[in-house]
Amino acid sequence: MTARMRIVALVLVLACLEMISFQARAGAQGAGGARSSGPVITGKVYAFEKIADGVYYSTSSSLMATGGNHTIIVGDRDVFLVDAGATPAAGRALLEDIKLITDKPVQWVVNTHFHWDHTNANSIFGPEVQIIGHEYVRHAIADLDIIHREPFKTALANMPIQVDALKKQIADEKDPARRATLEKQLAAKQADWEEFKMLKPTPPTMTYTSKMTMFQGQREIQLLFLGRGHTQGDTIVYLPKERIVCSGDMMETQPAYMGDGMFDEWIKTLDALKELDFVTDLPGHGVPFHDKSLITAYQSYLKDFMSQVTELRKQGLSPEETAQKVDMSSHKGDFPQIQGPGAEIRGVRRMYEWMDERPH
Ligand SMILES: [Zn+2]
What we know:
Elements: H1 3-25, E1 40-42, E2 46-52, E3 55-60, E4 70-74, E5 79-82, H2 88-98, E6 106-111, H3 116-119, E7 130-134, H4 135-143, H5 152-172, H6 176-197, E8 206-208, E9 211-216, E10 219-224, E11 236-239, E12 244-248, H7 263-275, E13 280-283, H8 293-314, H9 319-325, H10 345-357
Parallel strand pairs: 5-6, 6-7, 7-8, 12-13
Antiparallel strand pairs: 1-2, 2-3, 3-4, 4-5, 9-10, 10-11, 11-12
Helix pairs in contact: 5-6, 7-8, 8-10, 9-10
């Protein structure tokens, strides 16, 4: 395989992954009982599903990079928003579309964790808006040079590769309709790339350590740090009266990015999540789900990933070799996004690091 062919293959894989995540957002049914529950209001970029009075879940099938899904909690006076968005343009589009469900201003934003697809739009909010995150989120964004580290590093590096691949496809495409579609995709990708290049990492303005409770009139909103896992500072947003949680990327309806995983602790933190009294989980990616057995299924997935990587490493394999050999297909019933053998290299590298960090 030439380097160019490898790049084209990589772009195709990335395109497939984007497609899978879109299909999941569009309503793929997993064993966890994911289902659509309320009326949907569709804006220019985002669609809002009503989950409870004043609680909406937003997804996007736009060509624009929009990152994670959001929960929008409308109170008597203002709006509490879960996650900021993947780019300033995505954040602005979200604020514009939110006007379809309320005329109240967004006053509070929580970053469920520090990754770019949840925090890059922090910079669009003025000083009147409080951005809240676990103290680790502020540390990560303020101190860790997140533009040059994963997962943003690869997302940014993929931009020119994807732009080139689309240009090549357009040059080769004879069908005018398909060519027009590709040209729209190219324009959207180029706009995303410009946004990515101008990003200004903006940390939360308010932090907490283990629990913070807010009241929006009669509504109670708890921000909970239940332990390390997907990163070292993930927040679970919990509405005890409505029995709703927003689990961010700690628990999605698809396998999460593991490049910052704290694996053993992740499984324990998911136990703590299951102990909360809730009937609806609105995750950072995927679709709402109602059945806690999906969390148990994800714990089994993590355990299996850890044991396979541990075993392959014992055999002397490099992270790259291990990433090709790991086979999570037996979890496909719970996570239909799994396409076959192989694992994301950054998760495998992180697991090698994690093994080195663990006390013996
Ligand atoms: Zn995410």
